[in-house]
Amino acid sequence: MSEAPAEVLVAGGGPAGSVMAWSLARKGIRTIVLDRAGFPREKVCGDYVDPRGLAILDAMGCLEELERDCSRPITATSTYVDWSRRYDGPIPFYGFDERVPPHGRTISRRRLDATLIAAAARAGADVHERTAVMEVAAGRDGVEIIARRGSRRIHYRGRLLVGADGVNSVVARRLGVEPADSRRTVLAQRAYASIDDPQERAAGVDVFFEESLFPGYGWVFPTGDGSANVGIGLLAEARERSGGNIPELFGRFIEGLRRDHPLCGSLELCSKPIGGVVRTYGAAGTNRFDGGLLVGDAGCFVDPMTGEGITPAMESALLAVPTIVQALESGDCSAGALAGYEHAFRDYFDQSMIFLDFLAGVARNRHFARPWLKALARGFERAGYEDDFARTSGSFFCGLDIRPYDIIGQVWMRILEDTLLAWPRLLGGADRAGETWTSPRDLLSWQLAFARSLLDDAAWHARWMRETRQQWSRLLSRVEAGRRDPRAEGVLPA
After folding, report:
1. CATH number for the segment(s) 6-71+107-179+284-352
2. What is the mean pLDDT of the chain?
3. What value, to the nearest 5°, has the Cα angle with vertex 378 and ends 375 and 383?
4. Are 276 and 44 in contact (CB under 8 A)?
5. In sequence order, what DSSP letters do the residues of 92-142 get, joined into one string?
6. Would you give the distance in Å from CA 270 to the centre of its chain?
7. Which of 445, 413, 442 is nearest to 425 (CA)?
8. What are the residues whose beta carbons fall under 8 Å from the beta carbon of 407, sequence distance 6 or more?
9. Which of 129, 164, 150 is nearest to 17 (CA)?
């Protein structure tokens, strides 16, 4: 069977696809959303929505409904390194901008996605659930989709196609624009679990760094219903090189929570652990083709350090809308005519995301896990008593205003200070095991890590060094010194 032609076909009804359909439908553009799932549905995710994301939900009129059944406002965090708490206090970069809420929230993807797709339908978009995209054809003169709903094959036609169908995007794969890069692919597993006293940490999130998850981390995010979202994520390349098993690592993380976390001694899983994959921003290409473009996870709009993708997905959709409207009005839907979208998302995301991609690239080398973890411990402890350091340098992890040169400047000053004092501390008898300041032993550990990496796999080590230099060069060429992070201002529906 065939559906009536639409102006825009949106493949995927997650946050990116729903926000896209909602925004286009409000402008009177006939939009059809196709998703293989029925809503509500499960999605592998930490469920955390930062202040920028909450501002978008509020502008869409969805936030009040979602706030009825989600976590309390998240304003605090505890950060653990090797199961020892190194920071416990307010999230240092929340509450400084009146344009966004001074908090985040944990909102289950079952509720979030269902609410957003319903908002798109209310705005006038046609939502076709349980409709799996099978075949795609796109060009300057229009787009076609063959989809399956139950036993029926359905033919869709439109003027423009938006691929919002996630990391395993059928649209990207069929049109030959799918990125494949294990260096920027994150594997995750999560479940819901009960914790001993959910009210005690209801306004805070816990983040864990330890060697078996390097480069990556674990989390405990309160959900507001007496349970928490618990999970882990790490780079696919690291798992491949170390032979790690994600379910096994997740099981060890749960054991560690029961053993070492003060509120998780009797932790019990409330759901089956499920796994997923995301690709981070460093793998993003032009994200456009003749007849359409990619948004959300399909376009690699994911934070390279945290793996967070809800807010970037919604932002990417909103950034694409003006280009889509202009293309429809002009009648030119070629890749060239859609170049405005690439300019918009590069200008908005590059300032912070290229820097985060560089940091993630440096951390790819697992031989440096020990010295990096001690450096993190030292940094988190300093953040506990130095507010400016916490607000600026700590912004590399979930920050709202990431200024690369300010972070680099602060960190290098602290490194220089610690390094110059390393030998005086040793001579003064202050170099004791367990201390977090830099010691001669630490300086030696970096050199030994470098040597181990080189001896373990010289070819990989050489590639890593070359790619790190390339990422640094890209950072210098794309990131402007003194420029404020454009994401600090956010992007809201027009």
Report:
1. 3.50.50.60
2. 91
3. 125
4. yes
5. TTSSS-TTS-S-BEE--HHHHHHHHHHHHHHHT-EEE-S-EEEEEEEETTE
6. 25
7. 442
8. 355, 392, 393, 395, 396
9. 164
305 with 170: CB under 8 angstroms? Answer: no
CATH 3.40.190.10 fits 183-276, yes or no: no
The tokens for 6 are: 């639409």
Residue 224, φ and ψ in degrees, nearest 5 = 95, -5
pLDDT digits (tens, 9 = 90+) for 91-146: 999 999 888 999 999 999 999 999 999 999 999 999 999 999 999 999 999 999 99
- Crossing angle of helices 458-478/440-456, nearest 10°? 110
In which band, very low, low, confident or very high, does the pLDDT at 472 lie, cut at 50, 70 and 90? Answer: very high
The structural domains of the chain, with segments of one domain joined by +, span 6-71+107-179+284-352, 183-276, 361-488
**Is 338 within 8 Å of 291 (Cβ atoms)?**
no
CA 336, chain centre distance (Å): 28
- Select from 296, 307, 281 the least CA-distant residue to 219: 307
Please say whether the beta carbons of 53 and 314 come within 8 A: yes
